[in-house]
Amino acid sequence: MASTTADTATTTTAATGPRGPGAEGPGSGGSGAGRRRLDLSTLLIEGRAFLALALIIVVFSLLSPNFLTVDNLLIMTSHVAIFALLSMGMLLVVLTGGIDLSVGSTLGFSAVIAGFLLRGVPLDIFGVTLYPSVPVAVLLSVGLGGLIGALNGVLVARFNVAPFVATLGMLYVVRGAALLMTNGRTINDLSGTEGLGNTGFEWLGFQRILGIPAGVLIMAAVALVLALVLARTTFGRWLYATGGNARAAELSGVPVRRVTVWVYVVSGLCSAIAGVILASTLTSASPTAGNTYELTAIAGVVIGGAALAGGRGTVRGTLLGAFVIGFLSDGLVLVGVSAYWQTVFIGAVIVVAVMLNSLQYGGPRRRARANAGKAPAAGSDGDAAPTGQGASTGQGPATSPSAADGSPSPEERS
């Protein structure tokens, strides 16, 4: 066996030649050009969100002189903050291979709760009306959003209800509750009364710190926290492992059910924060607010490069996706495009993003399946080396689990 292995190694070296620097065959020029073409195509696919955003800025800057003004950029970024908060919460759910269709309804319900509390809570039994302060109303509204997310997580993780079905049902329940609380009417005038101590709610929507809207700063803070969690914490590694292969992650000791519940909780919290900011900006709370926003959130995640199958996606990419959606929508309004055409354009962008996702993630998987189907190369004595033999005998490097399943590195996660 030893002589056979040596002969095989000699034959392989003679057939392939040395692989040192500069030891390239006659066809190396063509392969180098092929690699350059591959690198360019990879760059275009992986950087699609950034390139799309740059293209949108250039096109609308040429079509409208007001698009790139500082005031307009701040206004558009304020609009993007709502979409970005929803998309970042959705990202965590998508990373586990799930979906949350209730984010738009949670946004509207949280806004209604904030408005209901600020307008006064009548206690007919005692003949009094309570007027909570703004911080109390905001915290209760956001906490209720987290509770809705927890219910979604329990349905999915503990009762094994399909995420699509569980969150679709919650979408109708939460939206119906908001309509019942308001009788379908919008709660107006949330500025409060000085004597009741419930003023200042509009701060979240109109206040600027160093010239930047408060909602944008909240969006940036949430993005920073989530990026650090995904890239630098054990929970982030658990989350990617759950999305990559939930069964393997569970066998490896990952608390898959707990991770699943918590990602839905975070999604609910992000939706509630977005709802409070929206209500503060409008100084009113509508029970129909956030209608179809769940589709916008999914679009931001997909355009940002996340895989709907789970296990791949970054906060950075999702932010870019939200900016693409927001800037495209506002740019079309600015140049006077009909609202019907806006829907067509945004839908086309989503379709293209899904196609590029298929190219980015489907290609490697197809190649991996094709390679797995090939028979292993046999030695001169007809015996094939078993899988992983090099790792066990010291003949070659072992492949790490993260490399085998294609999980992103900590740098890629941020």
UniProtKB/TrEMBL annotation:
Residues 1-33, 370-414 are annotated as: Disordered. One of its GO terms (molecular function) is transmembrane transporter activity. The keyword Membrane applies. It comes from the Bacteria. One of its GO terms (cellular component) is plasma membrane. The keyword Nuclease does not apply. It is a multi-pass membrane protein. The chain crosses the membrane at residues 43-63, 75-95, 107-128, 134-154, 161-181, 209-231, 261-280, 292-310, 317-334, 340-359. PANTHER family: ABC TRANSPORTER PERMEASE PROTEIN YPHD-RELATED, ABC TRANSPORTER PERMEASE PROTEIN YPHD-RELATED-RELATED. This is ABC transporter permease.
